[in-house]
Design brief:
Length: 92
């Protein structure tokens, strides 16, 4: 079982915006560019890069995707902070 994960994310307030971002990614848009444009999280300035984090460091919904979701595929997740588009780069 992985102890750490490295992920990118884009945080937005509305599901419609998150779904639009997912569609743009499906059409080949660069995750980092969309993060800089849309994300309300400070990590957006770094292309959404959250770096490496340990299991349990993120809110439960985010953690679940980070440690069980498919790697390198965007996932849509709702948390108390809003809607996240998450892309897990790797787990260790």
């Amino acid at each position: 079982m992985a102890a750490t994960a490295h992920a990118l994310h884009i945080l937005v307030k509305h599901k419609e915006i998150a779904e639009d971002i997912m569609q743009q990614l499906a059409k080949g848009a660069k995750f980092q560019n969309l993060a800089k444009k849309y994300s309300t999280c400070p990590s957006g300035k770094k292309g959404g890069d959250l770096g490496e984090f340990r299991r349990g460091q993120m809110v439960p919904q985010f953690d679940k995707v980070a440690f069980t979701g498919a790697i390198l595929e965007p996932h849509l997740v709702k948390t108390k902070f809003g809607w996240h588009v998450i892309k897990v780069l790797y787990r260790t």
